[in-house]
Amino acid sequence: MDTTKQVLSDFFYASNDVVSIARQLLGKEIATNIGGIITSGIIVETEAYRGPDDRGCHAYNGRMTERTKTMYEKGGTAYVYVCYGMHPMMNVVTGDVGNAHAILIRAIQPTEGITNMAERRKIDTQKPVLTNGPGKLAVALGIHKDLNGTSLLSANNGITIFDTEAIISNDDIVSGPRVGMSIHVGNCSHRPWRFYIKNNPWVSKPLKVEYNW
Questions:
Q1: For 163-183, what is each residue's pLDDT tens digit?
Q2: Is the whole-model pTM more than 0.85?
Q3: pLDDT score for 182
Q4: Per DSSP, what are the bridge partners of residue 38?
Q5: Ramachandran angles phi, psi of 43, nearest 5°
Q6: Which of 1-15, 99-113, 165-179 has the highest average model confidence (pLDDT)?
Q7: Cystine design at 131: which of 2, 14, 137, 185 (Cβ 3.0–4.6 Å)?
Q8: Which domains does the chain have, with CATH numbers?
Q9: In sequence order, what DSSP letters do the residues of 83-106 get, joined into one string?
Q10: How far is 112 from 73, CA to CA, in rounded Å?
Q11: What are phi and psi of 128, to 5 degrees?
């Protein structure tokens, strides 16, 4: 992993405005070093989840379980859980200790180790299907449940998010409802807290309802 790149500092994750940080993560680079294999990609799609008032959040109404307790850690911690018993999901914890806010990384554009990513996905392609979804990118990057609770503040911990010189303008950011929100979450299902880079081919399938930020 290139240690000359600038790791996002704890200050970046410190704000309790998880929605704002979800937008700011677009264009940043997430990288992993798993068993000496380095893979990375530019973050092109995110979703914000805010406890305790967000019914779509695992920590809604202050819920704390063995799985969700990582969400209450200090901003800059990886929250990795397994969806449907098979799909790892990479989330970034934000805010102060005790505020269960997290951002799901939904899609990345590979920058390094794309051959290794394809091998991990067991597919022979370098097309966007490789990492255009949260489960896909986690597998491609070698992220697994054992990395839950990992600090993102060091280039030596397995998962790191680096700053980049990319500037994503407001005109290039699109927001819309988060993917897979059940009708049971009520008005929270309509919150436009999914963000992605407009016209980027590595973004997951767009929703019908979208809003220019």
A1: 998 889 999 999 999 998 887
A2: yes
A3: 80
A4: 33
A5: -75, 120
A6: 99-113
A7: 137
A8: 10-203 (3.10.300.10)
A9: ETTTEEEEEEEESSTT--EEEEEE
A10: 29
A11: -55, -25
